[in-house]
Amino acid sequence: MSVIKAFLFDLDGVIVDTAIYHYQAWKRLANELGFDISEEFNERLKGVSRMESLDIILEHGGLTLPEEKKNELAAEKNQWYLELVSRMTSDDILPGVANFFSQVRKANLLTALGSVSKNAPLILERIGMSEAFDVIIDGTKISKGKPDPEVFTKGAAELGVNPDECVVFEDAVAGVEAGKRGGMFVVGLGSPDVLTQADLIAPSLENLTVADVLNKAETTR
């Protein structure tokens, strides 16, 4: 049986919660196009790439637009989102994250960020966590979004470890599926009713210890 060597983390909903900023920017875009989206609808966009999110929103609004216009709208939404996240600070780091990462370092585990967001490096810089990761895989380094496992398999490859030596931390259904498809042990952060595919589920990193994760990962595979 392989020993766990690396922890791979999603960004949104795991390290910080930028979902509210995405929602505000997408809602503004929908409103400008003549319809609205609710917070409940926004749940469908979690863990999904920007262009895929736009397609879901346009379908919701009953709109079909040419590719050029869609690229224009996606860029506009991203600009509004960047204006919001550029105000983020270390105060936006979710509870329990700093303590958990302290345990990760003491356990000599490698770390990677696996986020489909092209803005991940900016967010990490704003919250002062760029140095917390040995490898950063963001939307600029992948060609397929979650639930494709590319973001995590690429992270493992850059860390120099095998997929079965990795634990993935995710809050979205698409992300949990990506981790599982990549052959990794997956910790779901959120509701057990939603993240049914995860190997271990907790409300957040605040409710976990590294020892608990390692014990579970190494005894259930």
UniProtKB/TrEMBL annotation:
Substrate binds at residues 10-12, 26, 45-50, 53, 77, 115-119, 146. Mg(2+) binds at residues 10, 12, 170-171. Its EC number is 5.4.2.6. The keyword Nucleotide-binding does not apply. It is an enzyme of class 5 (isomerase). One of its GO terms (biological process) is carbohydrate metabolic process. The active site is at 10 (proton donor/acceptor), 12 (proton donor/acceptor). Its cofactor is Mg(2+). The keyword Phosphoprotein applies. InterPro entries: B-phosphoglucomutase_hydrolase, Beta-PGM, Beta-PGM-like, HAD-like_sf, HAD-SF_hydro_IA, HAD_sf, PGP-like_dom2. Keywords: Carbohydrate metabolism, Isomerase, Magnesium, Metal-binding, Phosphoprotein. Binds 2 magnesium ions per subunit. GO terms for molecular function: beta-phosphoglucomutase activity; magnesium ion binding. It comes from the Bacteria. The record marks 115, 146 as: Important for catalytic activity and assists the phosphoryl transfer reaction to Asp8 by balancing charge and orienting the reacting groups. It catalyses: beta-D-glucose 1-phosphate = beta-D-glucose 6-phosphate. Belongs to the HAD-like hydrolase superfamily. CbbY/CbbZ/Gph/YieH family. This is Beta-phosphoglucomutase. The lineage of its organism: Bacteria, Pseudomonadati, Bacteroidota, Cytophagia, Cytophagales. The gene is pgmB.
